Amino acid sequence: MRLTQGTFSFLPDLTDDQIRRQVQYCIDNGWAVNIEFTDDPHPRNTYWEMWGLPMFDVRDAAGVMMELTECRKVHSGKYVRISAFDSTHGWESLRISFIVNRPENEPGFMLERQEIDGRQIRYTTRAYATDRPAGSRYD
Amino acid sequence: MADHTDTPGAQAPGTAASAGHGPIDLRAEFRDSGISRVLEELDEELLGLRPVKQRIREIAALLLVEKLRRTRGLAAEPPTLHMSFTGNPGTGKTTVAMRMASILHSLGFVRKGHLVSVTRDDLVGQYIGHTAPKTKEVLKKAMGGVLFIDEAYYLYRPENERDYGQEAIEILLQVMENQREDLVVILAGYADRMDRFFTTNPGFRSRVAHHIDFPDYSDEELLQIGEIMLKKQNYRLTDEARAALARYIPARRGQSHFANARSIRNALDRARLRQANRLFEQSDRPVSDADLVEIHAPDILASRVFDQAREADGEVDHG
Q: Which residues are within 8 A (CB) of B212 and not within 5 positions of it... i.e. 6 or more apart?
């Protein structure tokens, strides 16, 4: 099941040139671009790990693409996303976030039903990938 | 925010080749590109340096033609634009590098046209594994612009084989080769040491296309530079002071650590200090506007440089 999170997630995967132009758009708006990665695709997992520091003082997308290439080399089998933080007063939050790398096989999510209190049911989703320990989930 | 799948038409070879075959008006292209303005600024702001300006003109012409070739679908790959600036301190290497960045930008050979100026400290780390991230950080910042490495030969320390500079050099070389369209590197330093640096690092020599040598300024040029500096700060030399400065320059040149325009700037800073003190001490009468603006001969003649010059002369006489 193809993971759809963040901007552009219902489009085909962006090419590197498209990513570069999106990143340049973020930089031109004065946002700090971040590269994050994870192997826990649950939608409520907001704490992805950061690849390096936020890139506050990069003027051109080529610098970000250099880091992205590095990150993909190391974390090729994981989800990698690019996010951009707007530090303007009143915003002070992420303005955009999109997936730029995904594992080859995405096993998807399991819907678990938990029966409680007689006939009531609680639903929860769980990624099949997280059955295995972190680090060997998409091998 | 939609994704852009189209590339600019000029870069697609198919459309470019068919986009008009009429003769090109090179002069008009030159005017429109905005380089002429940058070159004029260079002429106005920097005195002398005739060979440097000549080379920059040549490079600008090459870049303009290269750009035109690109619009006609003729250029094969981006030209190598890395440069080396050699010359004594204070000959305007950094200033010219800044101009170079805007020339490259106005011709579209770098995308942003900013200048990141670094030295060994900014590139080389202090412990194992520190250098690569540090160098990459600098490269990231410089992407789309010009990376200016001052005193580049300090990167390579032959006396210490475990020096981390070598690592920075390797990363630099890799980026200089593979990301030529993203970044232009300018190496700068004293001529003789740069020569030695290039012989010990043949990788750099072959990747640097343009070597520009910055000559020392003549005494007359330095005098004019001094006057321009003062004018910018709203000061003026009296005629005697001008004569004193004209005598000061050759005397200063004869001494150690002479740094061309920078020495003049320092000398003038000290003259301003003395002028301020002089105004303070003559507190018997009110200070006029002219007093605030004018630098008098004693402000310059009080310099130690003259004493030392006299001493040196004295020794010669006795010896």
A: B51, B52, B55, B56, B83, B84, B85, B86, B96
Shortest Cα–Cα distance, A66 to chain B (Å): 8
Q: Which of residues 252-271 of B touch A (CB under 8 A)?
A: none
Q: Among A23, A26, A56, A59, which would you mutate to test the B interface (most chain B Cβ atoms within 10 Å of its Cβ)?
A: A59
Beta carbons of B3 and A11 less than 8 Å apart: yes
Residue ranges of domains in chain A? 16-104
Residues of chain B with CATH 1.10.8.60: 219-318
Distance CA B252, CA B305 (A): 6
Residues of chain B positioned with their CB less than 8 A from the CB of A52: 133
Residues of A in contact with B143 (CB under 8 A): 58-63, 66
A16-104 in CATH: which number?
Answer: 3.30.190.10
Residues A33 and A81: their CA atoms lie apart, in Å, by 10
SS3 A19: helix
Q: Indicate the burial class of B183 (C-beta count within 10 angstroms; 0-12, 13-18, 19 or more).
A: buried
Give the tens place of pLDDT for each residue, B39-73. Answer: 888 787 778 888 888 888 888 888 888 888 888 88
Distances (CA, A) of B289 to A128, B224, B233, B237, B296: 82, 24, 14, 14, 14
For residue A35, give the nearest of A26, A46, A48 by alpha carbon: A48
How far apart CA A73 and CA A101 sit, in angstroms, is 11
Q: Which positions in chain B touch A34 (Cβ < 8 Å)?
A: none
CATH 1.10.8.60, domain B219-318, yes or no: yes
A46 Cβ partners below 8 Å, 6+ apart?
none
Per-residue pLDDT tens digits for A124-133: 999 999 999 9
Please give the ipTM for the structure prediction.
0.76
pTM of the full structure: 0.77
